[in-house]
Sequence to fold (137 residues):
Amino acid sequence: MTGLPPRLQDVVDTLALFDDRSEKIQAIISIAESYSAPSHPKPYPVESRVPGCESEVYVWGRHFEGGWSFEFAVDNPQGLSAMAFAKILQDGLNGLTSDEIRQVPDDLVYEVFGRELSMGKSMGLINMLQMCKRIAA
Fold:
């Protein structure tokens, strides 16, 4: 995948180095382990909840001079793919402009995780990215 913002492209390129599926999964788990809970107190606002996400994910965005800052809450301790993608999106989208965020293709989910994910999990992760795009619109 080309044309991604540099920090997202770095993640895609790094994960593409793993020929072995189990090694790639371990790398994604490592990313998930670097996820940290947000500063927002519970209960999280209903309007911040990502629709269709099995792991009960919430997203907040804040615009500042020159770009956006996103924060994610994954309310499922077993939601490793959601935690990994939250960390990837937070690191990869923070600081970008609205136009740059809107141009990130939804296929990013498949570039990171492959096509082996269930339909429900794939849609939840895609909805995380789409929610960031809506916030930045």
Remarks:
- Helices lie at 6-16, 21-33, 80-93, 98-102, 108-113, 119-136.
